[in-house]
Amino acid sequence: MGKKEVSEVSVIETNDGPTSFFLIGGKGSKRTLKQEIQKKLFALRKKRIAKLLKANPHTMEQVIEYAKSKWGYTDISKESEEYKTEYNQMRASFILQYKPELLGKLKDYPELEGRDEESIKHFMMLINQRQKAAEDIPTELFDIDLHILQVNRKDFHSTLIFEKNYGYIGGSASGESNKAMKKYDRIFLDVYKYYGVTQDDIDNQTKRFEDMLRTLARR
């Protein structure tokens, strides 16, 4: 923030934790025509997918084994620094999302009280306090069952993340060309489709069902 005043700040929380995007724009800024079209097309894709989606569920254990056998992923050690860092961040994210009452006075997501620089700094300080408080919650009170798989090749590095208790699947990839990201998208979509949904998910439009629609509609 280089200015004392910003016209507009929008906060968008991600589904899996405290990470947020801050969109700063002109006062009264609205979606462009292109953005409105993209939003409508996304909604139409979700509706079309919802009509075609059939029950074909697999457990998280089956999905992990599928990623290993079909795509060559392997577990990273739970003693590695990479695993410990990801575990701490993910556990804190899940506390903030599913058990915020464990944070006591910090359980409520803070409000942005103004649009000036000092208000934004104060808001970010409270966000960081919540994150730190979540990380300090003992594992005896809240724990996760996290599994991290990786593929490391010369032209393709990819990570898949699975959390069994809450049915979370995520990941990332890097490589020397756009082919790496296209390959990752293909793998992630295949693994997520294999995870599937139950008939109960379809009938009751559960979180698993909604997550499936969003994932399939975005790719």
User: Given the helix and strand composition, which structural class is it?
Assistant: alpha+beta
Provide the domain count: 1
Indicate the radius of gyration in whole angstroms.
20 Å
What's the helix-strand series?
A: EEHHEHHEEEHHH
The fraction of residues in strands falls at 15-25%
- Summarize the main sheet: 4 strands, antiparallel
Strand neighbour order, sheet with most strands: 3-4-5-6
Shape: globular
Low-confidence stretches: 1-24
If helices are DSSP runs of H or I spanning 4 or more residues, what is the number of helices? 7
Task: Count the E strands.
Answer: 6
Task: Please characterize this protein's 3D structure.
The protein has helices at 33-52, 60-71, 81-98, 117-135, 178-195, 199-204, 207-217; strands spanning 8-13, 20-25, 74-75, 146-152, 156-163, 168-175. A four-stranded antiparallel beta sheet has the order 3-4-5-6, sandwiched between helices. Strands 1-2 form a two-stranded antiparallel ribbon. The longest helix is centred in the N-terminal third of the chain and has 20 residues, at 33-52. Strand 4 and strand 5 (156-163) form a beta hairpin. The chain has one domain (8-30, 58-195). The chain has 219 residues and is an alpha+beta fold. The radius of gyration is 20 Å and the shape is globular. It starts with 7 loop residues before the first strand and ends with a helix.
